[in-house]
Amino acid sequence: MCTRLSAALLVSTLVAALVTNAAAQTNTENFAQFRFNFNNPGARATGIGGAFISIADDATAAEANPAGLTTIIRPEVSFETKGIKFTQKVSNFSHTGTSANFVLVEKKFSRSLISPSFGSVVFPVRRFTFSAFRHELVNFESAFFTKGSFVSTVPPTSPFFPASYFPVKAENTLKVVNWGAAVSYKVSGMFSLGISGGLSTISMKSSLSRYFLEVFTDGNIANVATIDDTGTDFFINAGVIVKPSENFAIGAIFKRRPSFSLTHSFRFTDFPKDSTRAKKINFNVPMSAGIGVSYRPLDELTLSLDGVWIAYSQLIDDFVLTISEESSRPSDYKVDDGFEIHGGAEYVMFLRSIGIVLRAGFYTEPDNRIRWVGNVNDTADPNRTFARQLLAGLFLKGDSYIHTTFGLGLVLSNSFQLDVAGNISAVTDELVGSVVVRF
Amino acid sequence: MNLRDAAIALLCVGLIGVSTARGQSPWFVSYEKALTAQEEGDWKSSIQYLKEAIAAKGVEKLKAKTYGLRFVNYLPYFHLGLAHYHLKDKRQALENLDVSLRQGAIAESPEDLERLQALRAELSGVAAKQPTDVEKRPPPAVETPGGEIAGGLPWYVNYETALEYIESGDWLQATENLKLALAANGIPRRYARTYGMWFVTYIPYYYLGVAYYNQGLWQLAVRYFETAERLGEVKDLEPESSTLQRMLTEARRRNVPLGGRAVSEQLRETLNREIAEAVRLFNQQSYTEAEAKFSGVLQLDPYNSVAKNYMARIARFPRDTAGESPVNKDFSSGMVQLLKGNHERAIRLFRAAEGEMGQDVELHVYLGVAYCLRYRSSGKKDASAVRTAREEFRRALAIDPGYKLDATLFSKDVIDVFNTVKRAAKK
């Protein structure tokens, strides 16, 4: 009983859910679920797999690549609404079998939201083009619970075997919004520069409660990790587009994204007594850089390919240990930078005077989950070894995903464009609608 | 794929793309430019374009597919021969005509074959049976479309600007912008892509025809309308198709060759001279002669407001009221001075006419124009002159808010001042 209790106490500071796609700035597990949406705004861009760096020729360019704004010769406004369904796989939701021979049961949780995700206005003035925009860089929601399973990474030879997780209940909402302005300049017929920047705001509400029993009442709470905070920072995007000819373009973009300081609270209800401690943590949205090429063999057909490097390693800059602080170090955790490939095609045909646009594309989403890289056996202390075994089992390497995208556009007149697009993957489904109006 | 591999792959894609992009235009683009150049008598440029076309496609063919469902009789060697013929390069002309004959495609086009044989006969020292169509053509009249994109602007910027000028009736500016658009993009399209998802009906030859027609340049209008017809630019478009037919018929009827390359400036000078003379005749009360002169002006420029107004006054004026003038004499004399460029005299005469004429829209307009000229002659230092000009334009527009300043008579800076006042007045 004593062994089980010790194990439970240790595990109580650890994880309940093995989830995909970490985006943590601490080693609190629900942090590890936040998902960024770095795809370029607009259903047109979504439809072609987000490969828009070198195209960027409508009002969404303020975010995608501000250099592309110089293409626009008349004022434009754009507006995008997005419906997103997040699917979250909890791999140790519960277990079946005996303690000696158990099998983990996984469960998927989904959460959907609809949000006006992008809006912009664009004004060309001679060789300059100006824009103001609002972009939801991150809009994420999740909610899940677990029943408390055995911990599969603790070997039967361990004095702590079988250790079990506490049942948990968690709920998270995170929104990062960029409010920005952009200016671009046409240096020559084939060369344009652009820069955008502004204020980023964050609003995060996250709570994860661990329970002694699978009865989710306040009296059963063992501990609670909470973030309920807001913050601000600045962001900057800088881009360039080179057009050696009218049907071929090369674009490049760098995005310095915001970093926020937030307060993370951890409340123990029973050990050694009801107490709360708070820590300041940094929430870094990773910067990125990309290069893209597009080619238009026909007026009706556009092909585009982007490569985007994302500095996911920034997620563990200033990494704060909020659990098992004595048993692990920040250097025990790692995230690799990611390289995404985006590709797509767009084909236009006309029905009378209405342009009908078909789009298809894809993009890769590399594993950006924080993983354990420390040595679990670097200590003679069995409790510490046990804790490190648990952390090693918790912070496993994640999966990479391929997103398939498709879209339909209607150019209803020479000044009104309506687009819808879908984005399907194992972890995220999106339906995006956008309009572009030209004056 | 790691970062390095991906970067290398992207670089390769980029290099391939760049090399493709730097390649030659499709053969039909060069060929179309060559034909346009030849139509306008720019034989040197046409040779360059034809060589580009031949480099991409060296075999002549009738009804060769270009893009979409468009076909063209592709006879580059024949046209090369034609160009060298006009440049007096007998050897090159014969060589190329012979290549065309050897390839055989031209044999299926009796009209072209006849022209080729006539040229060969002349070059070989045998008198031609009939003068060819080419020889009948008048000398070149306009600058060749082709070459650099002015100001680094893509074709659609100039094209959309031209459409705005057409809408406002500024045919000269429309012409300039259309020519720039055509220089950058010689292929008309029903749905031509501009940027983003915006498409435009790109029919530059038709609009050039319209612009020249409205400037009274019948010969050029005929040429561009015929090119528009040949390319099927407005085949299924209404009302453009019927407008083209109507204007083409009228332009052919009125076709009076003007010649020279700087047509716009020449036309302006001609009109000014003719109007000044007509007004002088009018002031001498030689109304019949003046009417004939103004009528001549309207043949050159059917929308000429000065000529129209004088014609209207003459028509209204009872011919039996001998000794009286339908227009204030000071005003008429001022007009003559203004058209001759003597703006200070014109101002004095217009001011003298003010007492009798009172609130007259044209008096205020031409006073404004005269003050604009004073402003210009002061090196744009005399701010009071431009202020007065604006005030006079405001007065004119208060009487007739829809008044348009004649673009064929006055230079752009004068028209700009007027249009600025007009826009402000509208607000």
Short description:
By secondary structure, chain A is mainly beta. Chain A is built from 4 helices and 18 strands. In chain A, strands 1-2-3-4-5-6-7-10-11-13-14-16-17-18 form a 14-stranded antiparallel beta barrel. A two-stranded antiparallel ribbon of chain A has the order 12-15.
What features would you describe in this structure?
The complex is a heterodimer of chains A (439) and B (427). A 14-stranded antiparallel beta barrel of chain A has the order 1-2-3-4-5-6-7-10-11-13-14-16-17-18. Chain A has 4 helices and 18 strands. In chain A, a hairpin with a 2-residue loop joins β16 (401-413) and β17 (416-424). Chain A starts with a helix and ends with a strand. Chain A is mainly β and 439 residues long. Helices cover 65% and strands 4% of the residues of chain B. Chain B has helices at 3-21, 27-39, 43-56, 76-86, 90-103, 110-123, 133-136, 155-168, 171-184, 204-214, 218-230, 240-254, 263-283, 287-300, 305-316, 329-339, 343-357, 361-377, 383-399, 412-426, and strands spanning 61-65, 71-74, 189-193, 199-202. Chain B has a two-stranded antiparallel ribbon with strand order 1-2. A two-stranded antiparallel sheet of chain B has the order 3-4. The longest helix of chain B has 21 residues, at 263-283. Classes of the chains: A mainly beta (439), B mainly alpha (427).
Task: Write the SSE topology.
The complex is a heterodimer of chains A (439) and B (427).
Chain A: H1 2-12, H2 43-47, H3 61-64, E1 76-97, E2 102-125, E3 128-145, E4 168-188, E5 191-211, E6 221-245, E7 248-256, E8 259-268, E9 275-284, E10 288-298, E11 301-310, E12 333-334, E13 338-351, E14 354-365, E15 371-372, H4 382-394, E16 401-413, E17 416-424, E18 428-438
Antiparallel strand pairs in A: 1-2, 1-18, 2-3, 3-4, 4-5, 5-6, 6-7, 6-8, 7-10, 8-9, 10-11, 11-13, 12-15, 13-14, 14-16, 16-17, 17-18
Chain B: H1 3-21, H2 27-39, H3 43-56, E1 61-65, E2 71-74, H4 76-86, H5 90-103, H6 110-123, H7 133-136, H8 155-168, H9 171-184, E3 189-193, E4 199-202, H10 204-214, H11 218-230, H12 240-254, H13 263-283, H14 287-300, H15 305-316, H16 329-339, H17 343-357, H18 361-377, H19 383-399, H20 412-426
Antiparallel strand pairs in B: 1-2, 3-4
Helix pairs in contact in B: 2-3, 3-4, 4-5, 5-6, 8-9, 9-10, 10-11, 10-12, 11-12, 13-14, 13-16, 14-15, 16-17, 17-18, 18-19, 18-20, 19-20
